[in-house]
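Support request, please re-run this one:
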Amino acid sequence: MVRTRSLKDIVDVRIAYRCTCGQCESMPAERESVCCREIQQVENKLMEWDGSSIDYITEHGGFQSVCLDIWVLQTALYQTWQDMENAPH
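Re-run finished. Output below.
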């Protein structure tokens, strides 16, 4: 009997192969399944933290306050909305 693999199995294998930080999980869409180490701006942030390299972005000292703080996220959303309203059409 031939065992067929689900899309999730295929994505899990792809992420396991592609992930270099060791923290990635498969996402519903392939385009969402990106290791933080694949993004140059993130890689730069990883290198600048406290003068030493860290393994993944959630270890960065600024991650909690910038990416997970509800008030910071709300302010960024309002700024984005304002920028969109003022953008030339």
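Residues 46 and 52 are 8 Å apart (CA to CA). The two ends are 59 Å apart (CA to CA).
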